[in-house]
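Side project, low priority. Logging it here so it doesn't get lost.
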Amino acid sequence: MKKCIKLTILSIFLVSILSGFQASNDSQVFSADSDKTPTFFVQSKTNGKDVFVECILSGISFRQSDHKGQKVGKLVIWVDGKRTKEVNAAAFIIKGLPPGQHEVKLEVVDLNNKSYGLTSEFLVNIPK
């Protein structure tokens, strides 16, 4: 009974954190030659001309570390098929998109821009 209550509280907590976010529909998972399969989940929220993006990525770090075997990477951001920028953070803002519908693609790559095979694509609609 206590376990059920704890799970319910945890579920309510997670839902409250994630409320207001739109999860992308096309997150992909890929095994990148490790014992643990990296996972990649993306949430986005539009605010005016800006898109707030939050990524949950396991198995790959955005920081170089002294840990041997730790995979390090970055995110390449594509908007409407054009490479726009790179980020080394799990949360970021895509600023100043023009009105209309836009296709956003996120790709996890290593520091030499070799793809880990983890991508997520989603559509955002910027109001007029």
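Brief comment: The mean pLDDT is 80.
Revisit when time allows.
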